[in-house]
Amino acid sequence: MASSTPKQQQQLSNMYGATAAPPPTPSTQPNNLLSTSDAADALSSILHRFPPALSLPTRCSPTVTCPPVVSISDQNPTLLDDVLTASSQLGIFQLTDHSIHSRLARLAESESLALFDLPNEKKESYFPKNWPVGYEGADDEDGDGLGESFRLESSCSAELSLDSLREFIGALEKVGLRIIELLSTAVGFENPTEEDPTRFHSLMWISEALPGNKPIMAGGFYPYIVCMQYQIRYQKYSLLADSGWVSVSPQVDSIMVTLGDIAHVWSNGKLKKVRGRAMAHLGDANNNKKDNNSRCISMSLLLTLPVDSKVSSLLPRPIGGNDQETDEQKIQTDGSACHEQQEEIRSKFNSFCFEDYAWRAYHERLLFKDPLDRYRT
Fold first, then answer.
1. pLDDT for the residue 133
2. 69-71 and 92-96 strand pairing
3. Which terminus has fewer CB within 10 Å in the chain: N or C?
4. pLDDT score of 184 more than 90
């Protein structure tokens, strides 16, 4: 091995001092230090306590892209292929030719805007905290740090007239169930909502960003299957996909769809995912002074699971379904093919409790580590 050059020695001297020892290697560290996983969790927890101005905007991609466009019309002959391609490559796409009218979306937005104008005592009274639903103030310790937010179920609030918002939530729910159906068919996993609609839970997340805030992480991370955001106007978003930070700008009147961690597990890792919700760029909305949405609210419908659910990969059935004799015959005639199939359907995730996972993901808000890592086999 060649000896160090004088220049290299000088650099080391400048870094550690003339008499300082080089930094210890991992093998010389004490055994009682935090593990890499615990250290990452602790660091994320500390960083989350920083004010929003100290977020990490440099992680966002400077290039704004248009998500893949998928026509959900029954007349689209390549619908399944389009959904599969967009879902397996990025986990983000925009739906066109859907059934939701822009007028309904605008009425729902107007009712949502009125919620933020209520006195604080009314907000807390009409939307009491019962995690994960309820009202969060801008300064609440358990809030997302990006402003006020409401997390509503489809029933919303009985004390307020929110008919358009309820209808809007119901329309998005139908679109979400259709997306899950398409995903299960295209990827080949069981659709758990087909025979039992109670297997899913909807959560409408309405949030208002504070002036001057930049989008960080995803402002509150709650697990979901699919998340849908109707594009009432031109708007840029930042989100954290498996490939890293992405900036997107969907078409007006489209529905931006992001796939979540539950869809990723259900598909046994075949579908890409997005962590948290896509967050709007506040400056883009404020540039349009004539728009009543200059306050930059976002309405995200999360199609998720009841808290008492178990999450696991929905693997395809073995060759021959339940016909054991047929399976044995195929094993004898083509052992190699059977081995390949066993490799394909092996679960990449251990089953886990949704409530425990959701609580941890929401309150710890890990920036640098995928919360699913601890459940991978």
1. 92
2. parallel
3. N
4. yes
21 in Cβ contact with 12 (< 8 Å): no
CATH classification number, 56-313+348-375, choose in 3.40.190.10, 2.60.120.330, 1.10.443.10, 3.30.565.10: 2.60.120.330
- Rounded to a whole number, what is the distance in angstroms from the first to the last CA of the chain? 40
Residue 376 has pLDDT above 80, yes or no: yes
The CA radius of gyration of the chain, in Å to the nearest whole number, is 24
Residues 347, 268: contact at Cβ < 8 Å? Answer: yes
Q: pLDDT digits over 202-260, tens only?
A: 999 998 765 554 444 444 689 999 999 999 988 888 888 877 788 899 999 999 999 99
